Amino acid sequence: NLTKRLEQVATYVPQGAIVADIGSDHAYLPVYLKQKGQIEAAIAGEVVKGPYESAVSSVKEAGLTKDIEVRLGDGLQVIEAKDGVSCVTICGMGGELIASILEAGKKGGHITGQERLVLQANVAEHLVRKWLVANNYQIIAEEILEDNHRIYEIIVAEQVAEAVVYSELEIQHGVFLTKEKPALARAKWLGLIQKNQYVLDQLAKSSTPQVEKMKKVQQEMDMLKGLL
Ligand code: SAM
């Protein structure tokens, strides 16, 4: 059984896609997608031997070795143009790692820009948006969800000819999320406000003046308060 988190990720994978799931661990996502008949084929990439072997076993147990190829390698290096990948999923990692995987993949020519990207960062989603924006991607969907008492975000993007301009607020806190303001996003922002307030209180108590830092935290907090 797939987690609610990955089940939601799966809804953004187009019907008939050829998927590259990077950091696939047990290859649960590609196996689920293929069993549902949602995708044509998949490549499951893993950089660590243990998870790579788990992925190999899962695919074998599911009887899907013809449809899902498990490859050992760093990030997007496991794919090349001739694989015809139409959708890349990178889930369950920090935003910084996801952005660095995308950057290395772009530089190495492992992604063409034609692929739909379905990204689920556990933290630092803004770094994912920053990379997307800098590389002419349009964010076409966002979702926030709770699974097993944790809040997760999903970002879906496709490359466009002309760069889309996003505000700092949208990059930091979401393009759709800041418009639609779902309850979970509000809860997350409220938590951030409390965290920032705590940081401010600590800074105010500091024996050395922290004017610049306090200004920055205050600005961030004002941005968040404006969202609620
Ligand atoms: N994608 C699955 C999910 O969302 O449930 C697994 C997430 S798991 C927390 C992260 C996986 O990414 C680990 O199995 C790790 O080995 C793998 N990973 C980390 N860095 C990677 C990289 N540069 N290239 C490929 N896989 C990587």
From TrEMBL:
The GO molecular function terms of this record are: tRNA (adenine(22)-N1)-methyltransferase activity
User: According to the entry, what is the taxonomic lineage of the organism?
Assistant: Bacteria, Bacillati, Bacillota, Bacilli, Lactobacillales
Q: Which PANTHER family does the annotation name?
A: TRNA (ADENINE(22)-N(1))-METHYLTRANSFERASE
Q: What is this protein called?
A: tRNA (Adenine22-N1)-methyltransferase
* Record-linked SUPFAM superfamilies: S-adenosyl-L-methionine-dependent methyltransferases
State the species of origin: Granulicatella balaenopterae
Gene Ontology biological process terms from the UniProt entry: methylation
Q: Which Gene3D superfamilies match?
A: 1.10.287.1890, Vaccinia Virus protein VP39
> Any idea which UniProt keywords this protein has?
Methyltransferase, Transferase
A Pfam family assignment: TrmK
Q: Where is the signal peptide?
A: none
Entry keyword Transferase: yes
